[in-house]
Structure formats: C-alpha cells, structure tokens
C-alpha cells in the first residue's frame, strides 16, 4: 500500500486527534517517523500496526482507560482514522499514566526529541512541511 500525502494526513489528524496534550503537528511527525504515512503497515516482529504502530497491548490499554463508549479493536488499526483516534488516546495515557512517550513506544530515551524538533519546524514553517518531516530521518 502506498503512503498517504501530507495534506491527507493534515486533514485526517485534524478530524481524528483525540489528544488533550499533543498537537496535530506532533502527531503528524510521529506518524511520519513510524511509517512514512503508510496506513496498512505492520511490524513483522511485533503486533505494531498502522500509522501510529499500535500494538495489541496499546489498544487494550486505550480500551481500559478511554471514555465510556470508546472501544477499538486491534484489527481496525489499518483504518487511518481509527488508528489516529486510538493512537492519540494512547499518547495521552503514556504522558499522564505511564513513563512517557519515550519509554512507552519502546525505543528508549530521546525518541520524542526528533519528533518535537519536527513539530516545532512544522509550526514555524508550514510552507515547507516535507523539509520539517525529513528532520525525523536524519
């Protein structure tokens, strides 16, 4: 499956970001870091799936900690909108109840540093978003 374009991602995130903490730009940068905007991607070494690479455990954690009436299934995580909704709930849970984004995504200290730099660049220069996104992969 080919990746989605930047403008498509902006609209998807704007419509589906459920985070009370993380900006749309942060979410966009995280998805670029994880998948280069490929919604159907799955990690062959884990259960990580979709734009935000959510594992079965992450989806279960969201279901246990999200508002009443909110429920996700791991097999829905290739649906871009549901992945963003679930993933942004997960980001808030990581920030408020767990060890933070760096440890919760299993990549260790500094994981969010390049995402935060990308977020700042996107906010400051919306005319060249791919330049900001490419910062992630340096």
How is the topology of this model organized?
Layout: H1 6-16, H2 24-35, H3 56-65, H4 80-97, H5 101-104, H6 111-124, H7 129-134
Helix pairs in contact: 1-2, 1-4, 2-6, 3-4
Protein name: Transglycosylase SLT domain-containing protein
Organism: Dyella acidisoli
Domain Transglycosylase SLT: 23-111
Describe the largest sheet. none
Class inferred from helices and paired strands? mainly alpha
CATH-derived topology: Lysozyme
- The helix content is 40-55%
- Number of discrete domains: 1
CATH architecture: Orthogonal Bundle
Helical region count? 7
Which CATH class is shown?
Mainly Alpha
Indicate the proportion of strand residues.
under 5%
Whole-angstrom Rg: 14 Å
Attribute tags:
single chain, 138 residues, mainly alpha, Lysozyme, 54% helix, Transglycosylase_SLT_dom_1, Transglycosylase SLT domain-containing protein
Write a brief caption for the model.
The chain is an all-alpha fold and 138 residues long. The chain is built from seven helices and no strands. The radius of gyration is 14 Å and the shape is globular.
What does this structure look like?
By secondary structure, this protein is an all-alpha fold. It has one domain (6-137): Orthogonal Bundle (Lysozyme). It is 54% helix and 0% strand. It has helices spanning 6-16, 24-35, 56-65, 80-97, 101-104, 111-124, 129-134. Helix 1 packs across helix 4 (80-97). The longest helix has 18 residues, at 80-97. It is globular and about 40 Å long.
């Amino acid at each position: 499956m080919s990746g989605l374009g930047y403008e498509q991602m902006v609209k998807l995130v704007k419509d589906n970001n459920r985070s009370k903490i993380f900006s749309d730009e942060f979410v966009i940068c995280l998805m670029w870091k994880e998948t280069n905007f490929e919604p159907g991607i799955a990690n062959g070494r884990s259960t990580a799936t979709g734009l935000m690479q959510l594992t079965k455990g992450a989806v279960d954690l969201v279901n246990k900690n999200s508002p009443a009436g909110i429920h996700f299934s791991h097999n829905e995580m290739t649906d871009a909108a549901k992945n963003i909704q679930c993933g942004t709930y997960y980001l808030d849970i990581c920030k408020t109840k767990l060890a933070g984004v760096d440890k919760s995504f299993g990549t260790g200290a500094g994981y969010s540093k390049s995402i935060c730099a990308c977020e700042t660049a996107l906010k400051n220069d919306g005319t060249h978003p791919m330049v900001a996104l490419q910062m992630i992969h340096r």
